[in-house]
Design brief:
The complex is a heterodimer. Chain A is of the alpha/beta class. Chain A has a single domain, classed as Rossmann fold, CATH 3.40.50.300. Chain A has ten helices and ten strands. The longest helix of chain A is centred in the last third of the chain and has 18 residues. Chain A is globular and about 55 Å long. Chain B is an alpha/beta fold. Chain B is 71% helix and 9% strand. Chain B contains 13 helices and five strands. In chain B, strands 1, 2, 3, 4 and 5 form a five-stranded mixed sheet that branches. In chain B, a hairpin with a 2-residue loop joins β1 and β2. In chain B, 34% of the residues are buried. The mean pLDDT of chain B is 87. The chains are: A alpha/beta, B alpha/beta.
């Protein structure tokens, strides 16, 4: 429940972070706090380093400068024990699901359960079935191998694995890309409901303007190697031409009209 | 205790008061608590959630499961004090019906064994057919490329020759040098008591030039390049690169397979010659050191023991070995399905099959040479 987590506490604290890929600086001096129970959407042009920022925050890619703290703990060069501890607290969904290709979907979801907790096989199967249902996959997916799934199903199976341990913090890399609009809407409502009930904090790289308006509390835009953060309303007032074009283009307008219509 | 479930009676109704933290970390204990709930034959059950401190999807699911099993017994179940925060969580769980996962049973020993044997037999036959089909396909592509030599991809072929051949010179040379040493020691040990130590050179020369040099080179290349062919092409399949090639109108056999096969056919004879040379060199060193046979005597004996024809007989086999290794390596690569596991399995298969077929081919050559009297 939300009452147990201090609303003011920063779940993710990023200070002065610079990222680099292939010798090219992608982002300079990025700093923000991701507050508990907040959903932050990250947008930017292709190749602007959204995914690299996500990888830097979870410690997969070392930052060129700056520090990242998660749940108040600094994540420098994470050692084995650190990874194990953090693995319990967060869930990460990669762009193509990143399922283990030699395991079935159910076994994939049971990997974190088996590694991090001490549960009976029957209970693990039950929890796996629950997660498969929650992300909207048909029950017969459980026994399938990842190679037999479509891209959208792989993504949802990846989300089920990310949610396996009911983490407080979720990192999502383009969660709705490749989903049909109905599945994408279901996904948005799942994230919103889990956020309401579990006080979930979400860091989401996305291009889906519907997701941005429907679930994100704040939006971070990467423009010219800098991070601009604000609510949708604040960003709409931002004079930067790229931001204006992004949110005021035909797609952006349609999403805002839909938002206005639903209130 | 972090969590509990209190059972009280309220008239004819059973009241359940779950307390504490209902989260996944305590799921095993919760499951045990829930098993203790004995509703008996009550008609009404009230679940009061006021004492819940924290709940996640797993906790909610366990409660929901309890509710469903009570309802299945015909009791009317109501849930009180859900709270604004937990309501969406329960709504999500109610919206998505959970179906238990069917766990597969492996069956009994003998049946499993029989099924396994049958499966492997069919697999073997299918693989043989696939390899034959692949051989035909490659042969046709070769003929087509031969008719239009411009379609031969020269640069990739040279790159393959560099990777499969030139880079293997060190390891092939070192290993056959060592095998030459071993053979000389063993031969000398057997022949010395008869005062025939000089014939160690004959043994070494015939053994290396006719058989060992070619086999050593082929087996090293099967392990080194055959596996690389499978892994490279397999990774390209996983990455959908081969499909992309097909849609661009490129023939994967022409682009990927032909340069590899040609490259290996052209390099393996040289590696065989190199293995022959280093093996004899190893023998010569040991002859000099421990048998007191100087290099000039060694060379003279070598000259009388074998002719150029023996060298040729050893090397003529190399292109066949090379074709065999490259064909199997590429075929297994193209059989990869889109999973990491299958890349590993196919690579293993490729090396095992290539070494097996090289030795079978070598035996067939021996029979053939014997039959025609060489």
């Amino acid at each position: 429940m939300r009452s147990e987590s201090d609303a003011a506490a920063a779940v993710v604290r990023v200070r002065g972070v610079a990222t680099r890929a292939g010798g090219r600086i992608l982002l300079r001096n990025a700093g923000f706090d991701l507050r508990s129970g907040e959903v932050l959407g990250v947008v930017g042009a292709s190749g602007s380093g959204k995914s690299v920022l996500l990888r830097t925050i979870v410690g997969l890619t070392p930052a060129a400068a700056g520090t990242v703290a998660i749940f108040g703990e600094e994540l420098g060069q994470p050692g084995r024990g650190d990874l194990r501890r953090f693995g319990k607290k967060w869930g990460v969904l990669f762009q193509d699901g990143a399922l283990f290709s030699s395991l079935t979907v159910a076994e994939n979801i049971m990997v974190p359960l088996r590694e991090q907790l001490d549960l009976s096989p029957a209970l693990m199967h039950e929890i796996a079935a629950l997660k498969i249902a929650l992300v909207g996959l048909p029950p017969d997916t459980a026994a399938k191998m990842p190679a037999a799934l479509s891209g959208g199903m792989r993504k949802r199976a990846g989300l089920a694995r990310a949610l396996a341990l009911d983490p407080k913090l979720l990192f999502l890399d383009e969660p709705t890309a490749g989903l049909d609009p109905i599945a994408a809407t279901d996904f948005d409502s799942l994230v919103r409901d889990l956020k309401e009930s579990l006080g979930l904090t979400v860091f989401m790289v996305t291009h889906d303007l519907d997701s941005l308006t429907a679930v994100c509390d704040r939006i971070a835009v990467i423009v010219d190697q800098h991070l601009v953060i604000g609510t949708l309303a604040e960003l709409l007032r931002n004079p930067d031409p790229w931001i204006q074009q992004y949110f005021s283009g035909p797609r952006g307008r349609a999403a805002r009209i839909a938002e206005a219509a639903t209130g | 205790m972090a969590q509990s479930i209190e059972q009280t009676r309220d008239g004819d109704a059973l009241v359940l008061r779950p307390r504490g933290r209902w989260v996944i970390a305590d799921a095993q204990a919760l499951d045990a608590r829930l098993a203790e709930v004995r509703p008996g034959a009550v008609r009404r059950v009230r679940i009061d959630l006021a004492g819940i401190e924290a709940m996640d999807t797993t906790g909610a699911w366990l409660l929901f499961r309890l509710k469903r099993s009570l309802e299945a017994r015909g009791a009317a179940v109501s849930v009180d004090h859900v709270g604004a925060e937990l309501a969406p969580l329960f709504a999500q769980i109610e919206k998505h019906p959970v179906e238990p996962i069917k766990r597969t049973h492996r069956g009994f020993g003998l049946i499993v064994l029989l099924a396994h044997i049958g499966f492997r037999t069919v697999e073997f036959l299918r693989l043989t057919r696939a390899l034959l089909g692949f051989f035909g396909e490659v042969a046709i592509t070769f003929v087509r490329t031969g008719a239009k030599p411009r379609r031969l991809r020269f640069t990739p072929m040279v790159a393959q020759m560099q990777r499969a051949g030139v880079s293997a010179v060190g390891i092939v040379g070192l290993l056959s040098f060592l095998v030459g040493i071993v053979m000389t020691y063993i031969g000398a040990q057997q022949l010395k008591p008869y005062g025939a130590a000089i014939f160690t050179v004959n043994l070494l020369a015939v053994g290396f030039l006719r058989e060992l040099g070619g086999l050593l080179a082929a087996i090293i290349i099967a392990g080194r390049s055959g596996s690389a062919f499978t892994a490279e092409i397999g990774a390209m399949i996983v990455n959908e690169e081969v499909d992309a090639m097909r849609t661009l109108g490129l023939d994967p056999i022409e682009v990927l397979v032909v340069p590899r096969i040609l490259g290996l056919i052209l390099t393996l004879p040289f590696l065989t010659f190199w293995a022959d040379f280093t093996g004899l060199a190893g023998g010569a060193v040991i002859c000099r050191i421990s048998l007191d046979i100087p290099l000039t005597t060694f060379l003279a004996q070598l000259h009388s023991a074998v002719s150029l024809w023996s060298v040729f007989l050893g090397i003529i086999k190399a292109p066949f070995f090379a074709a065999c290794i490259a064909l199997i390596g590429c075929n297994e690569g193209l059989l990869v399905t889109r999973s990491a596991e299958s890349v590993g399995r196919r690579t293993t298969q490729s090396v095992v099959q290539a070494i097996f077929l090289v030795i079978v081919l070598d035996a067939l050559f021996s029979i053939f040479f014997n039959a025609i009297g060489i």
